[in-house]
Every structure is written in C-alpha cells, then in structure tokens.
Design goal:
This protein is of the alpha/beta class. It has six helices and five strands. It has helices at residues 32-44, 64-74, 90-96, 109-126, 144-152, 163-173; strands spanning 20-25, 47-53, 81-86, 101-106, 129-134. The protein has a five-stranded parallel sheet, with helices on both faces. Helix 4 (109-126) links the parallel strand 4 and strand 5. Bound molecules: 4'-phosphopantetheine. 4'-phosphopantetheine binds at residues 24-26, 53, 89-90, 118, 121-122.
C-alpha cells in the first residue's frame, strides 16, 4: 500500500527553480514591522533578498552602510535571507538577480493606493509581481520616520525597533543610555 509520502509527481521543467523574492526599502532604520515581514517572507520563499535603497531622496539618519549593517545583524538568524544595496529601479535589481516578485507589507488602507500604483508600474515595466502581506496588527502604526521623530525628542521607541537599533538611535541622536 502506498502512503501519501511515497507518491512523487513528475514536475515540469523549471518547477524546482529557487523562489527568490525581494523586500525593498529605505530601512532608515529597520523596525520590528520590517523584520516581521522579512521573517514571514523567509518562511514562505526559498530566498529573500532585503534590498536597501542607497539614494533615498529624503535626508537619511543612517548611511547606507549603517542601514545594511543593522539589517545584516538583525537577520543573522535567517539562513535564507541576505542583504544587498541597490540604486535605480527596483525592477532592474530584480532582473539582474533573477527575482520574480517583490514582497511588501501593507499597514493600512492609506498604504494601499501608493503601493498599488507602484506594483502596477513595476509589472508594466518588467512583469515583476508584487505580493502584499498585511502587517502584524502590533506594528500597524509603525514607520521609520515616526520612530526617528519620537527618538529625536527623547520618546520611548523600545519594542518598536530591535535592541541594536535602539542603541544606534541613542548614539546618533546623542541621548543618554537607558538605565
Ligand atoms: O521604505 P520605503 O522608502 O517606503 O521604500 C520605497 C522603495 C525603496 C521600495 C521604493 O521607493 C522603490 O522601489 N524605489 C526604487 C526606485 C523605483 O524603482 N521606482 C519606481 C517604482 S514604480
């Protein structure tokens, strides 16, 4: 008698391809909301590339090297996640790295319109799909710009960013370490 695990299927050529996706962003700095999406993507796909935009138009608090370094440290536990930097179009980065889909987190309806526009444009430009994950409700209100603003005025951002980012924020903004 055959058990379900004895049954093999002849997969068409290409079905064993590595499923590689990208989580792009500015990550200035990485938050627990970003990490949640990266971790969930890592459980679904073979490989996840976290792509850090180098030429952010807005004034960045952290340099690209610093943002990449923090991301590498906080994703070290994921064997299938690697961190890279990119500039220019995300679709060009995808084509150059054999990436078929972009994974994005959606926090609220307010995110949707802009994200939909970008996803449709990226599909039109290069046939790259965008897959949306709803954000963990714990982080629905979380964004890097708010974290920076609160930290700048001495507010508590503990629990919103990884511990090492908390330390870097305090260093950068010249605040006393927590006791
Ligand atoms: O963390 P952010 O700033 O919201 O990330 C935005 C990002 C980097 C994902 C987006 O601005 C992007 O993909 N920029 C690369 C330039 C590009 O491809 N622009 C055309 C999008 S349709």
């Amino acid at each position: 008698m055959r058990c379900w695990h004895d049954i093999t299927v002849d997969l068409p050529e290409g079905w064993n391809r590595v499923r590689r996706v990208v989580c792009p962003g500015s990550f200035d700095p990485v938050t627990n909301g970003h990490l949640d999406i990266i971790g969930r993507a890592a459980r679904l796909y073979d490989e996840v590339v976290v792509a850090v935009l180098t030429n952010i138009s807005k004034q960045a608090l952290f340099t690209t090297d610093e943002r990449v370094e923090m991301l590498r440290e906080v994703t070290v536990g994921y064997e299938n996640v690697r961190v890279a930097r990119f500039h220019g179009l995300i679709v060009d980065f995808c084509r150059a790295n054999d990436i078929s889909a972009i994974v994005k987190g959606l926090r609220a309806v307010s995110d949707f319109e802009y994200e939909q526009m970008m996803s449709q444009m990226n599909y039109r430009l290069a046939g790259i799909e965008t897959l949306f994950m709803t954000t963990n409700p714990l982080y629905a209100y979380l964004r890097s710009s708010l974290v920076k603003e609160i930290a700048r005025y001495g507010g508590d951002v503990g629990g919103l960013v990884p511990e090492l980012v908390l330390v870097r924020l305090r260093d950068r903004l010249g605040q006393p370490p927590a006791i």
